[in-house]
Amino acid sequence: MDLKELHKNIGTAKDNRNNPIHDWYRFTAGFSYKLVQKIIELEELGDKDCIYECFAGCGTTLVSAQKNGIPAVGNEGQELLYNVIKAKLDWSVNINSLKQFMLKIELSIENGTYEKPYHQLLKTLYTDSNLFQLYYIRDFITDSKLENNCKVFLNLALTQTLHKVSIHPIAIPYISRSKMLSGNLTAYDTFKNTVFKMIEDLATVDGMSNCTNIYRHDSRKRNEKIETDSCSISITSPPYLNNLDYGEVSKVCSHFFGYTNDWNEITEKVRKELVTGATTHYKESEFDLEQWKSSDFYIKNKSIIDKLLPDIKKIEEISKTRKGRKSFHILALYYFQDMYKVFLEMRRVLKEGSKAYLVLGDSAPYGIFIDTTKILGEIAKNCGFKGYEIIKIRERGTKWQSLTYRHNIKLSENILILD
After folding, report:
1. Domains present along the chain, CATH in parentheses
2. What stretches pass through the bilayer (predicted)?
């Protein structure tokens, strides 16, 4: 069986829903642990290898590597997700300490009080009783004398709880107040069940040692903690060129834990650490095409970008006729420029002759098709990779066909293999 025979949902996180540890946190845009498992088998990876993951996300590649006893290193720019991954990868937490904590908080929360102000956004997303319990649990964890890895573990359980007891879905960029969620359990009961479920899951990896490292780092920049030529393969899924604002997606949890407080802090602390994947990452007024053409990226990839520029111009003209006037033309150029930087760092850490597997999707901003996967393959060749192969996984974007102005171009989700 090769990658072409994998099921069409391999590029989604559906498989991760029922797999221990993988299901501790699933992101809006994720991919299946089965893909990582299949690549490990196809490439015959072992404990002498090291996997590089430049967009660690919620840890699918790193968790899969550790379950197989294969060393791996990864970068993640978001503080929230960095801590999620740390919790997923540390299987040495003291279970007795966790159980003792749960006994203490159960005795305390019933008569507890919380007098600090709640974040305004969260006040619109949770019932009063659940809001109190969420904040009470958060501070009880912070103020406890637990070891740090236990606190990280419990905060991940609390992060899951935030999703499970919200009045409206929160794992989306723009929260819809029209869609209501129903739940019978309180925030505390949900948290308690989640903690003990996670403890149960640790039994499935009992005796396995930690062989992975996660760094809070921007993969467009050199990570001095990862040595040159130290990795034998890369397995990752970069942001797609589809205007998904990852900082916006995670804002409820980020605000709750105090990583961010408002739009500006999301920009400064989150968006600036990520590959440009949304029009919210930059100021349109600050972009000048001729000045941009003096960049190292354009100079090194001139023939590729010059072929793309006519479509970029079309996108810009169409945007002027649309209500949102989204600057997708600028987004595309910044996106490819950022991915060029990612590829340069990827090529540095990979040994000569190593492969990279990337789950990617094509794009059609304002109905103009951008062959994202192929363009990235060509850019990668200018970063030291010798060639590339594209394997189509499935068609994507069809569920939005009913939207006004929605294009009818068939998009695909692919695996880009660099060598």
Report:
1. 3-89+210-244+266-418 (3.40.50.150), 95-205 (no CATH)
2. none
